[in-house]
Amino acid sequence: MLSRLKERLRLEARVWSGRKEAKSSNARIALFHDFAPPPTGGGHQFLRALMAEWERMGIEVAVNCLPDSAEAVLINSFNFTSDLLRRLWDRDVRMVHRVDGPLQVYRGFDDGTDLEIARLNREFSSASIFQSEFSRSENDRLGFGLLPGPVICNAADRTIFQPRQGKFPSGNKPIRVIAASWSDNPNKGLDVFQWLEKNLDSSRFQFTFVGRAQMEFENLRHIPAVPSDELATLLRENDIFLTASLNDPCSNSVIEALTVGLPCVYRRSGGHPELVGKAGAGFDSPEEIPDLLDEVGQNWAKYAGEIRVPEITSVAKEYLRVLEVTP
């Protein structure tokens, strides 16, 4: 009873704050998303980059309030307070839903979140935005009935994830490989990292894992999760990015690595093949990884030259088209 009362009081405070902020705002877009402080997952990072790009274009964005000036509303997956939006939604306005998942194939369990996303999609939105063809097709396959909409891939903030300088190191130096994950969900590639911990030849490969994982690192270098600017620096210090997650619809860490200029060795799962394209090599079992790292390392310039990564400017404009907001 006490916890419900506290939750209700918090909501009332947010409603009051949202209405107050809306009165003084000239924002053209309202974004409903509950941000967490960094270092956090990819959705938070992408939406920060998207907002920053819109603001560079002269488009003000209001977060978790609905000013009269707002021409459209972007809501993010299930990561917003729906009761807050219900209380502040007082007029006809275009709403676009950036959807995720399906989370049950990504997380490896079904806790009802995908059904909640579908319900929110039907209640609020005029259109959907999917992050990958994989995400759209899997949502269709599982019958969630989401509203149609385009696939718009995420993009990284290039003011942070600036290009790596220099070529692949020559000589007999070990190939520098990096992987990153903010989440410690085992589906982020725990089985692969455990295999690498036991089997990767340190004379051939210098491996760094950044983030969280449900394992102890003894042979592989481990750095806890870091903010984006520090991650960008670490990426630039390496040669190849490795991603091992299962059913990941649109991995921000892959996009950030590609943006820096790292070719990828990736698990053939989820949206990875779409994102990487010809800029890397895919594996089905961890035993394939050492040879693939050698292959990409020996032909580094070829693979790096195949990197095709979305620009945040073009992604921001694609979102504006769906929102029906003119630049």
Quick structural summary:
With 327 residues, this protein is α/β, with parallel strands linked by helices.
Characteristic terms for this protein:
single chain; 6-stranded parallel β-sheet; globular; alpha/beta; 5-stranded parallel β-sheet; Rossmann fold; 327 residues
Question: Can you characterise this structure?
Answer:
The chain is α/β, with parallel strands linked by helices and 327 residues long. It has 2 domains: 2-155 and 311-323, Glycogen Phosphorylase B (Rossmann fold), CATH 3.40.50; 175-305, Rossmann fold. Helices cover 40% and strands 15% of the residues. The chain contains 13 helices and 11 strands. The chain has helices at residues 2-23, 42-56, 82-88, 103-107, 113-124, 133-141, 190-199, 228-236, 252-260, 272-276, 289-298, 300-305, 312-323; strands spanning 29-32, 61-63, 72-76, 94-98, 127-129, 175-181, 205-211, 221-223, 240-243, 264-267, 280-283. The strands form 2 sheets. A 6-stranded parallel sheet has the order 8-7-6-9-10-11, sandwiched between helices. Strands 2-1-3-4-5 form a 5-stranded parallel sheet, with helices on one face. Helix 1 (2-23) crosses helix 3 (82-88) and helix 2 crosses helix 13. It is globular, with a radius of gyration of 21 Å.
